[in-house]
Write a structure and sequence with these properties.
heterodimer, A: 410 residues, alpha+beta, 2 domains, two-stranded antiparallel ribbon, 57% helix, B: 246 residues, alpha/beta, six-stranded mixed beta sheet, four-stranded antiparallel beta sheet, 8 helices, 26% strand, globular
Chain lengths: 410, 246
């Protein structure tokens, strides 16, 4: 018997019991839709984490000043300003796998532009900072080396700051006052969105580190040339652990620490933290898909149940088909095709429902979802295999009937 | 005389129950030549249905030998038996056994579906057979829209569609009234006159008189085997019946 004939027979058999067929399909529809939606939700979460990693900068090591111990009382990280700008330059210069090593000074204050004012933070940075933290300049330009040496009063605005001070107007070329010091805006940064902690990363102003130190912050900070943080970007593919070790020994040497003495700085590998987060969101996706698969499995059992009923109900038909020349394998194929058709039609409707459901979740819950073609293929493949798997037993049962007994079945 | 179409030698069938064995057929040796019209008779439990099932390759014997058109059927596997049922034998059942919600022509096509026949040829052969049994214009009716006699004629068209050498009819008139029974027997006689071998199981004497040979079964044995010199003519009797009614 040809496949087309088998499929036509299957479709007819399914049409005969419309309600029963639709209810059986419903199990597969819900299962497939659940798998697709759950994978979309999980993939959305994963994509968010990946974006955060990108925003942070990949392969990033953060160097923080270390702790001081005063009379046996340890003061915690950052309690002593042990890191200097030259430490940052030394790391960039002397360690091979470091393309960018960016010192970073932080300050906060009121910013005024015309009639508007806004309270924000500003960072004193070097051009390396843009590379280390993956900042992209949306419009205007970045700092020149001359801006750095001359402590030029130029600033780049984060998107939030630009919007709050200038609204829709172009801020480039405008003058703003940061702690009463006038600055010329030379560029606007591309939006980065929220940080891992939910902080608005675009509520920021970047300026040359020399400008921040000498013209805005002043005082001790200007004299000591210390920095708050050094961001070190490690080359893609380099061994992070090895680079960490090199940085540590370089800084210990520069700070003249005796062997056995504690480090006076802290090394933090943020990428690792994020990688762990990514891993956990990946596991969540798998878990969601696994839970959804259970409903697909239940749908499959529904198919098996209905196919068993169908084989019993149609025993005489099977007997007749055998009497006119159907072989066991023809009967097997007929019922298998029927089960797979049921599963595949259910699968197609399930895809529609799953895609629709994903968009609905994205729209109503404002949850990020990411539809992946492979999850759709997976769901269809899964539905078809469920048809084969759960259809096989009833079909084999039918094919093993003895013609004479099947014909006489009441 | 040519090689007989059907030869059985000591054909036996036992049904094994849990604690005992029932012998339904106890060694039947019979020869049926091509072109014969044989009526198999006997009370229920006589083994006539078992014999028919064995002739129809629907069941396998537990003893003896069965040769159909030169093939030693009793030695064949399930798939080979299916092929023989498909190409050599046409079945007509008491309860018609048509597929419900399936048009007459599709019912007739069914055996061709299992013999790799292209769709177009299937349809044309099925239509030709339906025309032979006088149901060409009912081809697209479903069994539920046909009378009993028409349904049985569809079943005969189905039995004929793959050009079998043997028609096996198991109580074909059991569910029909007298008039329709005569009509149907007339059709079978007509086929027989065209050279088709027909084996018919019935418990009605009236029906058996249309055959050219009557074989009677009792307790798993053949007890009578007689030729009928002048079989009754079903169509003539049908005309007589109609005259009586008028």
């Amino acid at each position: 018997m040809t496949w087309i004939a088998s499929i036509r027979i299957a479709l007819r058999a399914l049409r005969v019991n419309k309600l029963r067929s639709s209810l059986t399909m419903l199990g597969i529809i819900i299962g497939v839709a659940a798998v697709i939606t759950m994978i979309a939700v999980g993939a959305g979460a994963q994509a968010r984490v990946e974006e955060q990693i990108k925003a942070l900068g990949s392969n990033l090591i953060m160097l923080l000043p270390g702790s001081v111990t005063a009379g046996g009382v340890r003061m915690g990280a950052g309690s002593r300003n042990t890191l200097t700008e030259s430490d940052a330059y030394a790391i960039g210069r002397e360690i091979a796998d470091v393309p960018a090593s960016a010192p970073h000074l932080r300050g906060a204050g009121q910013v005024v532009a015309g009639n508007n004012n806004w309270s924000t933070v500003f960072y004193g940075v070097t051009p390396d900072y843009f590379e280390a933290r993956n900042w992209v300049i949306a419009s205007g330009k970045g700092f020149d080396p001359a801006d750095l040496t001359g402590a030029a009063k130029v600033a780049l605005l984060g998107e939030t700051v630009a919007r709050n001070l200038f609204g829709d107007a172009d801020p480039i070329g405008q003058v703003i006052r940061i702690r009463k010091v006038p600055f010329t805006v030379i560029g606007v940064l591309q939006r980065k969105g929220q940080s891992l902690m939910g902080q608005d990363q675009d509520d920021v102003i970047l300026m040359p580190i020399s400008t921040a130190r000498n013209r805005v912050l002043g005082g001790n900070i200007a004299r000591q040339r210390t920095v708050g943080v050094i961001f070190v970007k490690v080359r893609e593919g380099a061994d992070m652990k090895e680079v960490e070790g090199e940085i540590r020994s370089l800084l210990r040497q520069r700070h003249r620490l005796q062997p056995g003495a504690d480090d006076d700085f802290t090394l933090r590998n943020l990428s690792e933290v994020l990688a762990a987060r990514e891993e956990s969101s990946r596991i969540m996706t798998l878990l969601l898909a696994a839970v959804a698969s259970v409903s697909l499995l239940v749908g499959g059992i529904g198919i098996m149940n209905i196919m068993l009923v169908s084989v019993t109900e149609r025993t005489r038909e099977i007997g007749l088909r055998m009497a006119v020349g159907a072989r066991g394998r023809d009967i097997l194929a007929q019922f298998l095709v029927e089960a797979v058709t049921l599963a595949l039609i259910g699968g197609l409707f399930g895809i529609m429902l799953g895609v629709g459901g994903s968009y609905l979740i994205a729209h109503l819950a404002e949850w990020r979802v990411e539809l992946r073609p492979d999850s759709v293929l997976l769901a269809v493949g899964f539905a078809a295999s469920i048809g084969v798997f759960f259809g096989f037993y009833p079909a084999r049962k039918a094919s093993r009937l003895l013609p004479i007994e099947a014909l006489r079945y009441e | 005389m040519a090689e007989p179409l059907i030869v059985t030698r000591g054909l036996a069938k036992e049904y094994r129950m849990e604690s005992y064995t029932v012998a339904a057929l106890r060694g039947v040796s019979l020869e049926i030549a091509a072109g014969e019209f044989v009526a198999v008779m006997g009370p229920s439990g006589s083994g006539k249905s078992t014999f028919m099932n064995l002739l129809g390759c629907l069941d396998s014997p537990t003893g003896g030998e069965y040769v159909l058109a030169g093939d030693r059927v009793s030695e064949l596997s399930g798939d080979a038996l299916a092929a023989i049922r498909n190409r050599r034998i046409g079945f007509v059942f008491q309860n018609f056994n048509l597929l419900a919600r399936t048009s007459a022509v599709e019912n007739v096509e069914l055996p061709l579906l299992y013999s790799q026949c292209p769709a177009q040829e299937r349809r044309s052969r099925a239509m030709a057979r339906l025309a032979e049994v006088g149901l060409a214009e009912r081809a697209h009716h479903q069994p539920s829209q046909l009378s009993g006699g028409q349904q049985q004629r569809v079943a005969i068209a189905r039995a004929l569609v793959n050009d079998p050498v043997l028609i096996l009819a198991d109580e074909p008139t059991g569910a029909l009234d007298t008039r329709t029974s005569f009509e149907l027997m007339g059709l079978l006689q007509q086929l027989n006159r065209g050279g088709m071998t027909v084996v018919l199981v019935t418990h009605e004497h009236d029906i058996a008189t249309f055959a050219s040979r009557i074989v009677s079964f009792r307790d798993g044995h053949v007890v009578h085997d007689q030729r009928v010199e002048q079989p009754a003519d079903a169509l003539a009797m049908l005309r007589a019946l109609e005259k009586e009614a008028a």
